[in-house]
Design brief:
Blueprint: H1 6-20, H2 28-31, H3 37-40, H4 74-103, E1 107-109, E2 113-120, E3 125-132, E4 137-145, E5 156-165, E6 172-179, H5 180-186, E7 193-202, E8 208-218, E9 227-235, E10 242-250, E11 261-270, E12 274-282, E13 290-299, E14 304-313, E15 322-323, E16 329-330
Antiparallel strand pairs: 1-2, 2-3, 3-4, 4-5, 5-6, 6-7, 7-8, 8-9, 9-10, 10-11, 11-12, 12-13, 13-14, 14-15, 14-16
Amino acid sequence: MMRMSKSMMLGAALVLAACGKDAAVDDQEYAEATPDLSGTALEINSQAAGEEGAALIAEGFGVNQGELNGTGPEFLENARVQVKALNTALKDAITPIVELVNAGGAEASPGDVLVYGPTDRANATYKFTIKKVTAQRFVWKLEARTLGSSDDAAYKVVAAGGLTKGVLAHRGRGTIAINLDNLKAVAPAITGQGKLMASFAHTAGNDKVLSYRLDGFTPNPANHAPVTGAFVGHRRMPSGISRVRVFGPYNLKNTATPAKENVFASIRWIPGTGGRADIYAAGGDIAADKYFIGSTCWDAQEMEKWRILRQCTKGQPLSECTTVAGSELGTRAACPGADLGGEINPPSGNPDDATPLPDAPTEPEPVPGDVTPEL
């Protein structure tokens, strides 16, 4: 049997010591495949978009993106309620990912997998896992467990997704899905409930197209009725022109009581010019055989220039609709530009309508049916 010299033994010890050290993991390509808010958030006013990059921890969306002051056009303000609820849920899911990745210290696991955490936040302990599937495709999951727990079996998946990388970091084609019910199970103080699933696609010019599926989703059932259905939107660059289609219950002006109607809104925004909203409404104070359609336009400062609301009878042509008393404001000719002053073009009133909006630069992949990790 061969005997090792002292020098050989020392060399072997140094090798073993080096192997035992926590070597830093080069995680740049993994970090660039994580989601960020500006790549996944719906935008009505593209000038109020979130910041770019893996270091994003947004502190809101700016006054135009969701801070309602009650002075803007009714149809726009109420669409923003839905946009803000969705974007807040995205922010709350993405922020722990950003914090975990920015903290570094990823642990490499077999199969091109990196694990970040666990780390405690105010409401739960989080762990983020991301896997490299191909040179361009990455999939990930965010898990959480109750603060103070040391049981790995107690983790629940609170978000999952994937990205096929494009030209820019955090851009490409991918999905993100959030399970607020699982998060509430480990952090009971959380007010949100339901699920939010989305697919997105970005172009080389940083256009984005988004499709969301909401399942009983609400940030707080005490003041925001749960929504089940589809939201869609896109933003074109470099113009910043954006479109969204959302829906939710609220009390329309010019109706008899505070009962909430189900209002579907299609919004267009042209930076420096203004915007337009078209709506379809039913339920609430609207008779079962009737529905309302309406339009409004506003200038770059969001001053309403024209508004109309019309009552229609189901099964009858739109030419038979009548104007709702007291609903008219201004004239269509006052709208800032021909694109914003056309005839009423209401959305379908179908909560599951995920049809891309006109002028969408591309089409995302199908929206996930549930919050199910691919790893």
